[in-house]
Amino acid sequence: MCNHLATKSKSAGARKWTVALGAISAIFCAATANAQDLSGLPAQLLEKIQVAQQACSELENGQFSLEFGAVHRVDLDGDTDRDWVLDEAGFACSSAVSLYCGTGGCMSHFLIEDRMFSLLNQGWRMTNIGSFRVLLADVHGSQCGGINPSPCVTAGIWDREEEIWRSTRADLE
Question: What residues pair up with 120 in beta bridges, in sequence order?
């Protein structure tokens, strides 16, 4: 997100300079949000974007955009290398507001090396618990025996040897 710092100044020259910098910054931020460079994105994630673009285009000739923040680089597996995450919450289509997300949330695609996993969620983050890197996600309440507004989270840890996410449903007594 672009943040602008506005300062008060007594001189007219300083005010003009501040206005000019603000205008340039606003143009840059708008261009960044609508025209991200995807050349370095892995093929698996580019494929997800192409499918989303096609779906948007087929719906009343919609225009697809990938909003700033849709692509994340974060260590998912605890090896200190940054992995890839693509959040469909950052997909937008001019002809359909809810094309990519629904009451259950939005899909997030987690890519570790060449292995991709997707999760329908309403928000996620990575944290450390002991020596483990843990994916925490807010998921649909039905995954916890409730309904959509029921609070529900899931946690997963990447198993490097098996190349899978490990998670359990542990019932607290």
Answer: 107
Residue with tokens 């991200």: 36
The torsion defined by the Cα of 36, 104, 62 and 69, in degrees rounded to 10, comes to -10
Distance between CA 139 and CA 146 in Å, rounded?
Answer: 11
In 3D space, the residue among 128, 136, 107 whose CA is nearest the CA of residue 119 turns out to be 107
pLDDT digits (tens, 9 = 90+) for 49-100: 999 999 999 999 999 999 999 999 999 999 999 999 999 999 999 999 889 9
Domain contains 1: no
Task: Say what the pTM is.
Answer: 0.77
Sign of the CA dihedral with 127 first, then 131, 133, and 135 last: negative
Domain that holds residue 71: 12-166
DSSP H/E element including 92: strand 91-93
Residue 52 located in a structural domain: yes
- 59-68 pLDDT, tens per residue? 999 999 999 9
